Fold this sequence. Notes:
FAD/NAD(P)-binding domain; binds flavin-adenine dinucleotide; 2 domains; alpha/beta; about 35% helix; 6-stranded parallel beta sheet; 5-stranded parallel beta sheet; Rossmann fold; 18 helices
Amino acid sequence: MSPRCSWLYRLPGRALLGGIRTLPTTRCPGLHRSLTSSAHPPQICIVGSGPAGFYTAQHLLRHHTQAVVDIYEKLPVPFGLVRFGVAPDHPEVKNVINTFTQTAHSERCTFLGNVTVGRDVTIEELQTAYHAVVLSYGAEDKRLLGIPGENLPGVYSARDFVGWYNGLPDNRHLSPDFSAETAVILGQGNVALDIARILLSPIDLLKKTDITQTALDALSNSRIRKVWLVGRRGPLQVAFTIKELREMIILPGTRPANNPSDYQNLGDFIKDLPRPRKRLTELLVKAALEKPGEKEALRRSQSDREWGLRFLRSPVAVLPSEDGKKAAGIRLSVTRLEGNGENAVAVPTGETEDIPCGLILSSIGYKSVPISSSVPFLHKNGIIPNSMGRVQDAPGLYCSGWVKRGPTGVIATTMTDSFDTAQSLLEDIKSGALNYSENRLGASAIRELLLLRGIQPVSFSDWEKIDAVEAARGAEVGKPREKILDPEEMLQLVCR
Ligand SMILES: Cc1cc2nc3c(=O)[nH]c(=O)nc-3n(C[C@H](O)[C@H](O)[C@H](O)COP(=O)(O)OP(=O)(O)OC[C@H]3O[C@@H](n4cnc5c(N)ncnc54)[C@H](O)[C@@H]3O)c2cc1C
Ligand SMILES: NC(=O)c1ccc[n+]([C@@H]2O[C@H](COP(=O)([O-])OP(=O)(O)OC[C@H]3O[C@@H](n4cnc5c(N)ncnc54)[C@H](OP(=O)(O)O)[C@@H]3O)[C@@H](O)[C@H]2O)c1
């Protein structure tokens, strides 16, 4: 089992950073080893406990028999976007949590939640306490549209909206306005489809998921009946994938409302497309142009909710209501494409189109932010400049996941790139490029600093207590879990 060390910060007789620790270690085997081993195992810390953090840890622990890996997470709970991003009606995707839990249970792995790196502890402090620091802190911010009216009530970023229905503490008070009949989602990626599905799904389907009760109550009273997903480019450039499109097409209680003329000329292009794009386009064309069978026609005619894709439309302004107090529509610039395929660029034709709507969701991507002025950051691309995960001009610093390559790619992609980063680090250990001959105190040193700053780290066993309470609350209402929304409540639970 993993070291369960959260009680340590309450013990007397603590050694300070760089000092000699004399604490009893029987309940904390990882710490015991790091203090007594004369061989000084490599002490590595990872910032962020999403897929990138856990897959990096997994690879390091599996391929180095002595490395000690500590994972720092700003929230009291682990797993990043697997908990706060993946749609509640996709529970199978969350099974990766089982693998992450195994990693966290390794004797050589310690989870320290409720610690914001860059605020509660600096990168320099981590570099003093560890031989290597891996930055896996994801893409916490949202891309902005940069158009007038973007801040009006009724306009939400996908990041905030997804955070709201998934119980992200920061977004728990969002209270989106579902009083209008039409919603517009800007962007045509998988996040946009997730949101469309959540807005249109029959409430009885959502009730069985881990969506928050607050979201469930609000969606139960929603008047949204029509959702447009707007793309600035064409059907050959949509960013969503086939499985998610198929799910949307057969969503109970809804019917697609696509414009056949958008697809009529695609036939000539389809045969030359790469296979995944070809299959996706065939499905788009089929859904829009093929006459549905009797059963499907009946299903569609009985559905009271609609969704549709609008192409070649780029947002230019949010239109305010008469009193100017909230969004009442979106003005779109009609575009045409220059170039072909994935690289085609949308250019304005000069025409515009207005869609009246009361809810606008901007789903144009997430964005990483710099964590410290001492870490290089490419603002233009929103990534940490790196070579195979080695941060440029910063020996001992590594990065993985979305902060390494930008905010695209599924969990499997994140796994591969995290393994690559871990492999670079292991090669550096082997070649001597990463020197670990000097002892470093790792988590024990950082805990001292956190204690002095009044920060209470949450251990993995603490998280398991939170997990058990959430599961029990969920079981009472037939859900896999009822997420706790308030970090203070989480901390109170683990203090008991
Ligand atoms: C809405 C949405 C739905 C998705 N659904 C799917 C899906 O169904 N299937 C799929 O395969 N992929 C899905 N993805 C993609 C998948 O979530 C990503 O590939 C993956 O989460 C990226 O991992 P990451 O660890 O880089 O980032 P994250 O998962 O964001 O993890 C980063 C972690 O770092 C923490 N952190 C941030 N700043 C700090 C700090 N200063 N100090 C300490 N910790 C910090 C964060 O709290 C977070 O826990 C989805 C993505 C989104 C946005
Ligand atoms: N079920 C799943 O597997 C799942 C679920 C959710 C997310 N994910 C993954 O998570 C990653 C992030 O998803 P995402 O949907 O946030 O991002 P995404 O796939 O990059 O899609 C972003 C969308 O926003 C559009 N866009 C970007 N900037 C714009 C602008 N200024 N104006 C108008 N439109 C703009 C893009 O159009 P252009 O192409 O024209 O730029 C694109 O349609 C993706 O890799 C996705 O596959 C997976």
